[in-house]
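Good morning,

Both structures are done.
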Amino acid sequence: MHDPQFYLTMAAAALVALAMVTTGLLTAWRGWLSLKRQQLNAATGPASDSVPGPSATQRIEIADLKERIRKLEAIAAGVDL
């Protein structure tokens, strides 16, 4: 049992086994991170930066419509503007 060839073979086998386990764990870790990234993206939806807000023209039109509604409600209530 004091053969140096035996110890070298066992050390090499242990190193190969360690490399295989490490590679498997690294692959599993990357898969788990990818899964969590997908879950976060699904939970938050698309990024808020990619969704454009209303343009200036749309905001002016909405403000105009609100003003018209306010005037119509005032007329319906009998209030003189």
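Second structure follows.
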Amino acid sequence: MFPIRNTSLRRALRRTGLVTALASAGVLVAAGAAFAHVTVHPGSYAKGATDGTLTFRVPNEEDNAGTTKIQVVVPTDHPVLGVLVTPQAGWTAQVTTAKLKTPVKTDDGTITEAVSEITWTGGKIQPGQYQDFDVAFGQLPADVDQLTFKTVQTYSDGKVVRWIDEAKEGQPEPANPAPVLHLTKAASGPADSASPSVSPAAPQAATASSTDSAARGLGIAGLVVGVLGLAAAVIAIRRGRAPRS
């Protein structure tokens, strides 16, 4: 490699390298801060979705203590039906149910109770590690845009972190945001879903029509040229037969 003799150029390169390093560090710090939150995955489901799984990801953000207890509050004003906890090695899950203010009618009957809280204890999430807790559900509500799962994280040194703050539109993210599951518009029915498969054919039909029109135009042009050629030939023949003076 050739040495760089230009002092100004060397300084510029050093400044560029420093800016790049700081930018990279900023991205890592931002990513680390986001990862430190308790989150739910996937981040969205269709309204009224059935037979799915929610994963609560719990990272340990302490340096000298382990996470020993996780409490997740499941909303009951818009209940999640048919909740089942997946066994997690080293952890014991305790499920609490509550009576619903408004019973939910389903094909299997009217449901008057639903899970309101899940607590995991007995295990330990070490510093620098995270743990996934899986929960299966039978059906999500269809009358709300999102579900907030307020979560309490307890450490071995007695520290308690409450992930219960709800984000507000137009304001910065709170320090301890609660995990949020966004509920999107349900998929279209069979009649509606058939429309997209038909729509792409429209441009093809237009292309075919354009091609036919072009072919007809070329055919007509060829016919005109042929007629003109024939007329020219007839005129030439007649001139050839005309008596010379």
